[in-house]
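Appendix B, example 12.
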Amino acid sequence: MRFDERMRNYLSLGALFAAMFCLPVPGSEYFVYIGTYTSGKSNSKGIYVGRFNTAAPKLSQVSLAAQTGNPSFLAVDPSHRFLYAVGETPGREEGTVSAYRIARKTGKLAFLNTVSARGRGPCHLSVDKTGRNVLIANYSSGSVAVFPIRQDGSLGEASAFVQHQGHVADPKRQGGPHAHCIETSPDNRFALATDLGLDKVFVYRFDAAEGTLAPNDPPFAELSPRSGPRHLAFHPNGKFTYVINEIASTVTVFSYNARRGILSTLQTVSTLPPDFHSENSTAEIQVHPSGKFLYGSNRGHDSIAVFRIDPLKGTLHLVEYVPTQGRTPRNFSIEPTGSYLLAANQDSGNIVVFRIDPRTGKLSATGDVVEVSAPVCVTFVPAG
């Protein structure tokens, strides 16, 4: 066998080994897009982009990718060609959703168009598995909507809109419906939307071809009063769903019936140590690509709670609490190989890089800290 053939085989086996054990592939480089708040005391001007290489590891070359107002949450289509951002307009104005084309070599964003979010305070969006639709949650008005993606990546007007209705457990903190997250199921047949105000996870039958939402039977799963469900994450095996509860500072584990779209409660655990009694609210939740670990952020305790996932039951067992080296960790993202976690501390204006132990799931700071004003979302895209 020739030397160049041996080297190609060696590299292919190395990549396979890295994928199996969640190790970085040498030279894996990503664009890291950062959504921010641009209002208030923030000095941010919009969406920022940096580069992250797993061989370093270091977040570098951070610069403005697109100037826009309050792009607090971002989502990328499956082809990594387009990026979508909410625009949280202040007051009682309707928010917006904007579309951008990604320059694969530079990471710069080319503006395509903006449409109304059909509600106030859009706070979360996702792209369905086919890349045909953007789904959005409007927090302030408590609604969800679907927007078709045109061939050029721009957005059409809403193809579906649902206004949440219902009673609240805590009028002071919850006050009414507050949709906070919407994600499609692994098979793309359902869309699940958490509503912080109603203590419910709504389940919709989702038609990607038509971009429509229809209530499932049953139409929702209920959480304990004053839970405040915020974000959710599916296990890679599709059998379990995890919901982080902002008000109660807990994570609720559900078994998920993929055929019928039904959630059944299995467990609820705290994200806080038992001796912590100050104010706290949770924010982000993610399952490790290996399916072995779960991570959730605490704002107040200013930490990431790390849990081990039982491979058969899907239940959680505490591993550790790790300080995020900043204030108010609004969001974090796990690098696609599962080797690093980037935590965005909103109020201290920094992004901190952590290494993930593939055996235990524990986090250790790499020492890399990057200043970005009011960061609230971090998204990885393979660099071209």
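The longest helix spans residues 3-20. Helices lie at 3-20.
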